[in-house]
Amino acid sequence: MAQSIFEQTGEQLADTAHKVSRAASAVADALEDGVGAARRVAKQECRAAAGLLDDARKRVRKHPLEIVAATFAVGIAAGTAIGWAIRRTHLCNKADVPENRQ
């Protein structure tokens, strides 16, 4: 009887080890597939960025004055928005602090 319990335990351990081995193999395969997919996506994005950069260069060569004017307008708009936000924050902070009058 003792021998049959040991045999059953040994068989269960062998079966469990085999299942763990298969699971580890499946995880390794999934990880490898994920890394491969990430590399493919990175290459595609790199090509897309290079294409956008080439398009931008061509556009600047074709329409340099329009690009300069658009850049200037965006800079003015951004500066105005930042200045407005800073002024508003400064005024709000100033209104929150009570004045000490003695």
Can you give me a brief rundown of this structure?
The protein is 92% helix and 0% strand.
Secondary structure elements and pairings:
Layout: H1 2-62, H2 64-96
Helix pairs in contact: 1-2
Account of the 3D structure:
This protein has two helices and no strands. The chain has two domains: 1-62; 63-102. The chain is mostly helical and 102 residues long.
Descriptive labels:
mainly alpha; 0% strand; 2 domains; elongated; 102 residues; 2 helices
- Unreliable residue stretches: none
Distance between the termini: 98 Å
Number of strands: 0
The shape, in one word, is elongated
Average the pLDDT over all residues and give the rounded result: 87
Strand content: under 5%
What's the quaternary structure here?
single chain
Radius of gyration: 33 Å
Number of domains: 2
Largest sheet: none
**Tally of DSSP helical segments:** 2
Structural class: mainly alpha
* Helix content bin: over 70%
Helix-strand topology string: HH
